[in-house]
Specification:
By secondary structure, this protein is of the alpha/beta class. It contains eleven helices and eight strands. An eight-stranded mixed β-sheet has the order 3-2-1-4-5-6-7-8, with helices on both faces. Strand 5 and strand 6 form a beta hairpin. Helix 3 crosses helix 9. The longest helix is centred in the last third of the chain and has 20 residues. The radius of gyration is 19 Å and the shape is globular.
Length: about 300
């Protein structure tokens, strides 16, 4: 079987949702995915099955046992192996003709331009504790004219959103600026992701462990956001409609049976959002010192041995 025959048969059941001409567009598209952990890994396998033909992927970490509960590439056979390497192998096992370029040192100032070169859309699968790298990604993608899509698994709910060139800036939506402490930055990020915040009715803030850069997570929520983010990726690549970009937000919580879609005109700068920031901050009051002491993961490429 030739590569073309394999691809045609492997994507045959996509037809009807996309046309054959659109499937060919997807085959020629290039998607960048930053992070191959909980969200990023399953974004990759899903988009490969959807027939996306080219990828840039990045991750500097290796799989460990604590990843088993939610990460697509975490298995007993992959513990200790580099995440980017494992996920590239899985992608090629699904579609032998897929092109995967791996950035196994993560994404930072040392390689962000190379990572973004030729990419049509970027998916943010960056760890929540890696805020400096996330800010860099959104700034450089905007400068390069590339939309960035994101999803967030919050409890058993999922959010989806986008930042597009010419639209609201990442920093403005989350109200991020110089002089904020790590705790203030994190709280603004969390509240901006899900303005309704209904998942806090069943999540326990006391189980967040900033000293270990860890928190509660669920494979169910990861799978939920994957469907939403990968659908928006298809929309972006085929240009079927405008992306639902910030200041719009979407969150669905199947556990509570609640769907919310709205628009935060001023992002976190709005008066109601400021009240929510104070409320959520109060839930983590006993962790503020630990958050600020531990800080965020260092930017890839800035460590002494990088």
């Amino acid at each position: 079987m030739t590569p073309d025959e394999y691809y045609r048969d492997a994507t045959k059941r996509n037809i009807g949702i996309v046309s054959r001409a659109e499937q060919d567009v997807l085959r020629g598209a290039r998607v960048g995915i930053v992070g191959m952990g909980g969200a990023g890994g399953i974004y990759l396998t899903t988009l490969v099955r959807m027939g996306i033909g080219r990828f840039h992927i990045s991750d500097f970490d290796t799989f460990s046992v604590v990843n088993i509960n939610r990460q697509a590439g975490a298995m007993s056979s992959t513990i200790g192996r580099p995440k980017a390497e494992v996920m590239a192998e899985i992608a090629r096992d699904i579609h032998p003709g897929v092109e995967v370029v791996s950035f196994d040192r993560g994404v930072g100032e040392h390689n962000i331009d190379d990572f973004l070169r030729g990419v049509d859309v970027v998916l943010d699968g960056i760890d929540v504790y890696a805020q400096p790298a996330r800010l860099l990604l959104y700034r450089r993608a905007r400068e390069a004219g590339i939309p960035v899509l994101f999803g967030a698994p919050l409890g058993l709910s999922g959010t989806v959103g986008a930042f597009v060139p010419g639209g609201m800036r990442y920093e403005d939506y989350f109200d991020l600026h110089e002089g904020l402490s790590p705790f203030e930055t994190m709280i603004r990020f969390i509240v901006g992701l899900a303005p309704q915040g209904r998942h806090w009715s069943y999540m326990r803030p006391e189980d967040v462990q900033p000293d270990e850069h860890a928190g509660s997570s669920s494979a169910a929520a990861i799978s939920l956001i994957t469907g939403m983010v990968c659908t928006e990726t298809l929309v972006a690549l085929l240009k079927r409609r405008p992306l639902r970009a910030a200041p719009e937000f979407t969150q669905y919580d199947p556990y509570l049976g609640i769907f919310r879609h709205g628009r935060l005109r001023w992002g976190n700068r709005g008066p109601l959002q400021r009240l929510k920031l104070r409320f959520i901050a109060s839930k983590f009051a006993d962790k503020i010192e630990t958050f600020n002491h531990t800080g965020f993961q260092p930017m890839p490429g800035t460590a002494p041995d990088a």
